[in-house]
TrEMBL record:
Protein name: GMP synthase [glutamine-hydrolyzing]
Record key words, sorted: ATP-binding, Glutamine amidotransferase, GMP biosynthesis, Ligase, Nucleotide-binding, Purine biosynthesis
Native source organism of the sequence: Pseudarthrobacter equi
Name of the gene: guaA
Keyword ATP-binding: yes
Record's catalysed reaction(s): XMP + L-glutamine + ATP + H2O = GMP + L-glutamate + AMP + diphosphate + 2 H(+)
EC number: 6.3.5.2
GO molecular function: ATP binding; GMP synthase activity
Pathway the protein takes part in: Purine metabolism; GMP biosynthesis; GMP from XMP (L-Gln route): step 1/1
Length: 326
């Protein structure tokens, strides 16, 4: 078992041998893989590692803080934060086509990351040092899939931190190459990472940008963040986090329907709940969540989130539906 103390130590030793006294950078996405990869490398080489977090403003409630505060507190990692919310909002303004959104988010992410890289390279140069390595949170299934590429690759252009351009100036450090997801979570827990990070469900690189059907604005993001936070809190409170693979919450920003509130008519947007069960995200079934849980989520979202007057449940399996709506 990879996670028993000795093997963990061996792995840390391996990383130390690979990196030596060079400097290394690692992008953090807020997800499990990059967090665990960074924590391992931090254990191995300490402050030779600088992590980069590009905050694109498309994360869910509390997630940026999890990286900036909780991850740093748990690991002592040196973190460079690029606050790029405005940049992504500007680049996405008026865009509602899903693939165009994905491409814009991917492109801006790479640019923002490269700018952060340059700043760190300059800082290192001022100390007469060079950045030699880039950490990637590649897992075993990614290794197996690469080359052929997964079948779904042509359906949606995927973006994540692991997919950064292979910057030839860096050598790669891939400490998770032999591991499956559950093993990565176990290693993360052993390294003392917060449960909110280690237990995090899959979340797409383009984030909430592809959970707004319609164009992306600050107001819509804030609205969706509120609805999503309610749905997640209720799912957790019901003890069903482990039953559900993931539960995208989607804002149909281009749709409005009539409702009633008190004595007045409302004309608001629907929120879609998309809870699915799955083994690997290649196929999925819609989760049969208890009615009382669905009722609580619906009541809370329609009462607490201004502009939303309807909550609907997606009862489509994959295929033919994909998990995400865009
Ligand atoms: P779909 O919607 O294709 O999603 O059924 C399958 C799984 O992939 C996640 N997903 C992404 N993950 N970058 C990612 O890292 C992406 O661009 C991306 N798009 C979808 C999705 O959340 C689901 O787990």
């Amino acid at each position: 078992n990879w996670t028993t103390g000795n093997i963990l130590e061996e792995q840390i030793e391996r990383i130390r041998n690979q990196i030596g006294d060079a400097r290394v950078i690692c992008g953090l996405s807020g997800g499990v893989d990059s967090a665990v990869a960074a924590a391992l490398v931090q254990r191995a080489v300490g402050d030779q590692l600088t992590c980069v977090f590009v905050d694109h403003g498309l994360l869910r409630e509390g997630e940026a803080e999890q990286v900036e505060r909780d991850f740093v507190a748990a690991t002592g990692v040196k973190l460079y934060i690029a606050n790029e919310q405005e940049r992504f909002l500007t680049a996405l303004a008026g865009v509602s086509d899903p693939e165009t959104k994905r491409k814009i988010i991917g492109r801006e992410f790479i640019r923002a990351f490269e700018e952060a890289e340059l700043a760190i390279i300059a800082e290192a140069a001022a100390h007469g040092e060079k950045i030699k390595f880039l950490v990637q949170g590649t897992l075993y299934p990614d290794v197996v899939e690469s080359g052929g590429g997964e079948g779904a690759a042509n359906i949606k252009s995927h973006h994540n931190v692991g997919g950064l351009p292979e910057d030839l100036q860096f050598e790669l450090v891939e400490p998770l190459r032999a591991l499956f997801k559950d093993e990565v979570r176990a290693v993360g827990a052993q390294l003392g990472l917060p449960q909110e990070i280690v237990g995090r469900q899959p979340f797409p690189g383009p984030g909430l940008g592809i959970r707004i059907v319609g164009d992306v604005t600050k107001e819509r993001l804030d609205l969706l963040r509120k609805a999503d936070a309610i749905a997640r809190a209720e799912l957790t409170a019901a003890g069903l986090d482990n039953e559900v693979w993931q539960m995208p919450v989607v804002l149909l920003a281009d749709v409005r329907s009539v409702g009633v509130m008190g004595d007045g008519r409302t004309y608001g947007h629907p929120i879609v709940l998309r809870p699915v069960s799955s083994e690997d995200a290649m196929t999925a079934d819609w989760s049969r969540l208890p009615y009382d849980l669905l009722a609580r989520i619906s009541n809370r979202i329609t009462n607490e989130v201004d502009g939303v007057n309807r909550v609907v449940l997606d009862v489509t399996s994959k295929p033919p539906g994909t998990i995400e709506w865009e």
